[in-house]
Each structure stands twice: as C-alpha cells, then as structure tokens.
Batch of 3 targets.
Target 1
Amino acid sequence: MTPAGAAGEASAGEASRTYRVALIGGDGVGPEVVAGAVHVLEAAGRRFGFGFEWRELLVGGIGIDTYGVAIRPEDVEACRDADAVLLGAVGGPKWDDPDATVRPEQALFALRGGLGLFANLRPITVAPQLIAASPLKPELLAGVDCLIVRELTSGLYFGKPSEPRTTPDGERAAIDTLWYTEGEIRRIVALAFEMARGRRRKVTQVDKANVLATSRLWRKVAEEIHADFPDVELEHRLVDSAAMTLAKWPAGFDVLVTENLFGDILSDEAAVIAGSLGMLPSASIGTRTTAHGRHGLYEPIHGSAPDIAGQDLANPLGTILSAAMMLRWSLGQHEAAAAIEQAVSSVLDGGYRTRDLLPAHPSDAVALTLVGTREMARVIGDRIAI
C-alpha cells in the first residue's frame, strides 16, 4: 500500500491514522537505541501525517529483575495486539549463569513461537560512505546486496530433548536435538523464492547435507519448491563454503535461506561486511496480516553491549533502519520508510559517525563528526522534517 498524496503530504484519512507499536527496550543499550528510533519515527509521522500509540514492555533481563520471568503471557498478548513490535536487545553478563532456569533469551523464543514469527529477514548492504569501516577490501564490496532468510522456530534451538545428562559411568554429557519437519522447511523456502522474485532471482540454500539428515531434507524440499519458481535460480551450498564466500565475494549472493543455527552464525558474519554490527536491521515475520500489513517484530542484529550502556555511545542506525522496515512491511508507510533511509544516507554523507563507524586509520577521520546515540537520532530526525 502506497501512501496517498504527493511526497511530504498526507490525505485526510492518513492524517488521523494512529499505529499501535509495542516497544521492548530490553537490556544494555537497547532502551537507548529504541529511544532514538522512536524519535525518528515520530519525525516521520509528523511529516507524513500519522501517529503512534506506544506500549512499553519490560522484557528480557529487566523482566527477570522485575517479574521473575523474561516475558509474561500478557506481554506476548500485548505484542500480538499491536500492529508491530520494535525491540532493542536483551541479555547481558548479569543473567549469564549457565545453570539458570530463567534466561533473557527465553523472551525471544516466546515471542517467535507465540507470534508465529518463523522467518528472520536480514538485508546485508554496504553504505558507500562506510567502505573504509569494513574489514574487507573495497573492491570486494561493490554490488553487495544480500538478503539472509533464517528459519526461526525450529532446529537445534527448539528441538527436544535438550538437556544435561550423565553417562552410566558418571561422566557429564549433554544432548540437543536437531529437528525439522517438511512443513517448517517448505514455508521458509517458499518465502525465500518469493523474495528473490522481487530481487535478482537467485536463491542459495545453505546446509550441511554431507553430514546431516535434516540438511538432506532441506535440499529435497527446496528442489520441490523450485519447480513452482522456474524463473528463479537455485543453488545449494554447504555452510562452510557459504561462510568462506561471504568473506571473499559477498556480492555473489542474492537471497540465502537456511536453518536456524546456520542463519544465526552467517548473518552475524555478514554483518561485519557492513563495517559494524550496529548498522544492520532485521525483521521477524510470519503469515499473519493486520489492517496495515504483515505483522512482525523489528530489531537491530547487535546485542545489548552492556559495556557501553548508559554512555550515549551506541549506534542507533540498525534500530532506526529496522523502524523503516517496520513502516514498510507492517504499517504500509512506504514513503515514510524511504524518507528514513534517505535521511540515514544523508547523515552519513554529512560525515556524522558514532564511535563504531570511525575508520581504522585516524587520518581518514579528520573530516568526520563524532556523535553519540541521541545526536545521531536527532540529526536524522531533522533531515526527515525538511
């Protein structure tokens, strides 16, 4: 759905539109980067004639400290009732006891399962202004535009049994179960093909089929689905080969689709290409739609970074770009989403950088302006208002 009216204008119907968004700041720098995204979203709303009803939830480590659990059933319901969910980060050393029965990450699993969010979408691009911040050679970064589609609700993270055990002779052991059904694979692979049709029409299915039975099932199902998408190229890659290629020639990928664990690892590896984990957004979606678009949860791919929490040092761009994805996918505000993305690009053109985006060589940073979390959000909001 494209907003009515010319750029910067809104129809009378849109002027009164209010979107309900559940806000989960979480832990560490999470509340700071979410606050930055809220500032930018409100600037976009003022320009394009819509507003927000925010519902703040205490989830993650702060949920454990407040309620004794990472997330309550009523929090999941609040997220279900919202038009979309915006999340910062959860977890941190304070809650890292490996023997703990309650952990912040349980909130993420509860949200994915409770909201039916089976697909995590992570676009990997390189802003031209940040090529100097990437560890890859500049000639390897031309044309990088990749989308990683990660399955979220099955695999090792959810398989049962998953527990510590003891061998007959008293030695400690542990077991995790890797489990996938045909239906779980089919829905995520079909989504990847649909995404590829709107891009460069190439899907890379990543697995470990030379070792794992689940991976061989992934290959079979992917081949079956490919018959419905003859206009899209399909290739299979072992995960170690895919990891190496991401580091050597990332522009060779269009859409990568893979299981939960491999997707988790590969998407974090790919984030380094962009120069910082703080740059990249993500969306977790399912099949459910609302009056405005597809229901989803949006978050940056970085962690809670507790070492810099409360110091106004965190990069909010991944969260701000996640908010743009939310506007486009869940709220139907395509023009406002584009305005945010253009404002981010303009600010980078203007030389504004958070600490993580400074180039490796100090001499290259002479013409740059070092800013904190709040200032980065402010200058982006100012450009949207123009």
Target 2
Amino acid sequence: MANFIQTIQNIFRIEELRQRILFTLGILVVVRLGAHITLPGIDVVALEASVANADENTLFGLFDMFVGGAFSNAAIFALGIMPYITSSIIFQLAGVVIPEIQKMQKEGEEGRRKINQYTRVFTVLIAALQSWGVSIKLLNQTAAGVPVVAAPPALFTITTVILLTSGTIFLMWLGEQITERGIGNGISLIIFIGIIARLPASLIQEFTMVQIGSRNIVVELIILVFLVGIIAAVILVTQGARRIPVQYAKRQVGRKIFGGTTQYIPLRVNTAGVMPIIFAQSLMFIPNTIASFFPETNFFHWVARIFNEQSFIYAGIYSIIIIFFAYFYTAIVFNPKDIADNMKKQGGFIPGIRPGKTTSDYIDNILTRITLPGAMFLALIAILPTFVSNLFNVTPAFASFFGGTSLLIIVGVALDTLQQIESYLLMRHYDGFMKSGKIRGRVGAGS
C-alpha cells in the first residue's frame, strides 16, 4: 500500500503527466455534464416516468449503457461517440472487400489520415440519421397518456437533429483532444466514463440492501470478492498471448551489420477484444426491440419470453454467436498472410518453418487454436451477469459489472491508460504500479 501511495505522489511530481491527467479529468467532467443536459422541448417529468417503465433488454438499453444514461435522459450527448465507433467499424470491415480502402490501409500514415477523414465525414451522416430516428422515438413516447415532447413536432425534429449531431461531433473532437493532450485513448475513455458512471449508484443500492437487512453483510463481502476474482481473470485473459519467435538473418550494409536478433509475434488469446460480444448483443436484442413496438401481439410476447436474458435458450444461442464472431473478427483484424509476407521482405523467419505460405499456415493454425479458449471465455463472461443476478439476487445494474461488455471495456481501457502512465514514470526513473516497473502483459504484447 505504501508503494502504491508513493507511485501516486510520483505521478503528480511529473509536471507534464500531472497536466495531462488533470486535462483528461476536466474533459471527462464536460462529457458527464453533457449527458444530463436535456434536449429543448422535452417534458422532463413525463420523460422520467416513461424511462421508469422502459425495458433494458433492448437495443435502446444497450445503446444507453455505452452513452452513460444520456440516451434515456434525452440529453444533447444522447448519441455519445457511438456513430464514430460505427463508422470506424464499417471502414474496417470495408477494407476486407473494397480494394480502394484496402490500398489506403497499406499506404502508412498518409493512408490512415485519409481513412480518418472519411470516417469523420461518415460519422456526421450516421449521427444525423440516428438523430432523426431518436426524434421520431421521442415524439411517439408517452407516459400515462402524456407526450414526452411538448414542442411542435417539426421544430423539435429539426433542433434534435442539429443538437444531437453537433453533440457527437463535439464528443469526437473532445476524444481527439484527450488523445493528443491528455492521457489514454480519448474515444475509449469517453465510453469508459459512461459505463463506470453507473457504478456508484449501483454500489449505493447494494449497501442500502445490507443496511435495511435485505442481505447479510457476509454475503455482500462474498459477492465483492467474487467480483474481484472475475476482474483478475479478465485481466489475465486480456493480457494472455502466445509469443512466436522470429529470427532475423544478419546482413551487412556498408560497414554496419543489421539483423541477427530474435523478436516475437504476440498472438493474443482474445484478439477480437470486446467486439464479438457487442455484435452478438446487437443481434440478440433485435427480437425484444421489435416486440417492444408490438406490445399487444401474442406472437411477439412469445418471442420476448424465448429471448429473455434469464432463458437457457438465450444463453446457448448467445454463446454460439459470440464464438462465431470471435473467429470472424479475428480473421478481419489479423491477417497471417500479411505477417508472413512482411517477415519475408525483412529477412525474418520462424525457426524450423519455411518462409512464405508455410509460415502463414503455421501462424494461422496457432491463431485458430488459441482463439477457441478465448472465445469460450468471452461467452462465459457475457452470460455471467445473468447467473450472478439469479444466484445472489444482485440488482441488474450492479450485475452488469460482473461480465459482459461493461467489464471488458473497463478492464481494457484501464490497462491501456495505466500503461501510458507507466511509460511516463519509467522515463523519469520512477517505479510504476508494478514491482517490476512495467505492466508485463501489456508491454510484452506490444514489443
């Protein structure tokens, strides 16, 4: 504990690091303030009553989680940074099937700059379309017969599209400012703060249950210890990687000799990250989202029961879809053929493996094998909140932190941010948070 406190003190001794951290915190405060500024023309009382009766097991509930409650608040930041994330994913997937985008991806910094510019433009289009959809949803939303929107429909639609689109653009700019002048990845931190903002209220609910006698203090401590154990397991899998040794042949250029060293290709157990769960959740929430539009239809009531989060059918289908998307997304973000070609051009080879196609097949076989346990772990983490909620009678809001998208994003962003802080400390000859002076798994994965 003394070493941890000493590390915190060292962080604020470094002027540049201190300024970056304070700048990042200031930006995140602005992000949270924007999540509570309601759109003009909204009846706040009717909105609160309508939200209280809303079903979280829909696409709207998933979206609201990523934007930190801004969507349910009908705030100016209701779309969050999600249109930008959607645009980025679209261009990433398009790089597989569109030769022009694939060519730009291989042009280095200039290609990335062009793709980033196209991504921003496409973000504006997506945000405008989603803003129009939000305005329609709010116009049709009522609470006990009282409409949520008190303004004229045409005026409300125009102002909502302008404000929500501008809010997304502003958040995109804030994220870039954090990346350049703050600490950590700005876009990831904006999503992170939206998710973590629900934690204090969830903890207060848990401790209130202990105070009123609804839950024994020993059971509550067991729940918290269980949560810490799950977080530790997620960190281990997130950092886990299979390192493939690569030997570079010696070559002489003038009087200097290059090569002759051994480096490693880190193949991560969870190469796809959190994306398989996001894709799977989006698909699994579609039936309930459609059913919410037809509340009087018996067929959709039956569909809603089948795709309820408490259902074993739901858990089984959900797990299979996650495993599928884990392999699918890994195949998109990691191309063994490109790795093998680059190694061959630079004079590198895996000991005992011939360069070229043999190397590509070797890497692909290893990646296929290590992706399976990673995908199965993702599936387990995804369905864990439901079982925790049933086993310990935990509130749904707090149960979401035991797994799923929330936990994976929180752990991933926290580790990346800590790695950057570690780098600043080591450059100034201070010890980091770990005794070894580095976050071993994260640094090793990037070497």
Target 3
Amino acid sequence: MCRFVCYKGAPVLLKDLIFNTSHSLIDQSKYAKKRNEPVNGDGFGIGWYPDFQGEFYDPEPGVFKSIEPAWNNRNLLNIASKIRSRMFFAHIRDASADLPVSQPNCHPFQYGKYLWMHNGWLCEFEQMRRITLKHLSDKAFSGIQGNTDSEHAFALFLDEIKFDQEADDQTILDALFKVIDKIHYFRIKKNIMSNAEMNFAVTNGESMFITRFSTIIKCQPASLFYAQGVLEKDEHEMTEIVSNSTSSEKVVVVASEPLSHCEANWQKVERNFCLHIDKNGEVKSIKMPSVVG
C-alpha cells in the first residue's frame, strides 16, 4: 500500500504539508500508522498546479518523481520549499510484489491537465492485464509507460472522458465510477475472486475526486481521511489544520492518514464512498453506485 495527500485551497508552500506536519507524508514514508507495513520507500512523486496569473497562467501541472525514498531526497525538500500552489498531489510508493521500482511506475500520473494517483492494489492484476489492454483505445494503450495496475486504471479513465481537457465534474465523476465497474467486470471475466482496493484520486486542476473502495465487503479499503479549515503554525513552526476559524482562506486536505496528531480535526471517508471537492472547495461525500459491495 502507498500513502498520498491531496490539497486544495489558499496558496501554500508544498513543504508545509509534505514536511511540516506532526505526521507528515515524509513521516509516513517511514512510520505509517494505518497499515501493517509502515515503510513506503519505493519512490515518490509530487504534482502541482503553478500559482501563475495573467499571461503566465498555465493550466497544466508540473510533476517531479524519483525512485529514491522520500525521506532521502534533498531535491524534494528544496523544491517543496520554493513551490507555492493552490492545488497539489503528493504520493509515496510501496511497490506491489513483482513490480519494479522505476520512475514510470511512480505516481502521480499526468496527462494534460489531469493528475491521477492510486493507493491500494488490484490483487492478481497480471491475470486481468490483457483484457484491460484489449479494452483500451490505441491512444490510451500507447500512453502507458510503466506496468502498474494504477497507470492502467488511469488509461481506462482517459478513455472514458475521451481525453477531454474540458470535461465537467459530472463527466469526470461518472468516468471514475465506470472505471471501477470495468475493473470489477474484468476480474469476474477472469474468475479473480481476491480483493481489489481502489483509492483513486484524480484532479483537473480545479476539482478533486477521491474514492475509497474495495471489492470484497468483509475487507476494508486502504485508509482515507479529510480535513477542512485553515492552516496555522504552532510554536514549533509545525502546520496544523484548524476548523474553527472565520478566515475566508479555507483549505481541504485529503490524506491516507491524518497529517496531525489531533485526529479530531479529521473525518474518515467511509467504505465505497467518493469525495468530490468542487472548484469552490465545497466537499460532498457520495455513495458510489457501483454494483460492487
């Protein structure tokens, strides 16, 4: 299992959430609490939307990936200390069995304006990989650079939205649900009875969509939480998310594990629900209409 963070709100230095929280993503790369294996050292990635305005506006995100452990990469700290963004994704990887540690396999995956991450795994993916590829368009097939289940799911998603850079929120949401249904269908066709955990995160730079899903009812998906409020620094310059504030600069953070020790500020996303954070930062928790679970 991997760990990830999704952020939307007032402009913030990436380091404030990736490094400077009491249970930051860097901390989780060595000491994750809500999974059996605490280490996520098989690479990392960040994707951010530049906070440019006017003639410098750029709708496509920047992406930086490395196969080094996140805790051991000085470039990550340097970059995160200089980049300010209103929206970013960050991911630390624990590679699935038999999958190589390589840059193409690191998240987030990007196409145009879209970023995609996955926490979880499709058990016995190799048995369904061929049927997945068979259902992809030539364009989606050609875009796959690695061999993770996560990137194949992203290819399915891009086909569902027809690679449309201006797809609206409902189209993206419907496509995300269809991807999960397709994966379930492929697994049934190949008689795969094991669990598939699909905590998918996707954004177009304005809205975010994050699922918490598993195909077997008795199995809980990978953990997922969110917090709303404002960011404040304590006396040790650590970042905290405070909910009881009148500030208009509200933020939303979605993470595999709460980023602070004050878990009361964090709400658990229920099994087989999807969070939709729209362009205005409004959060909706949607029961997924999938035939599964």
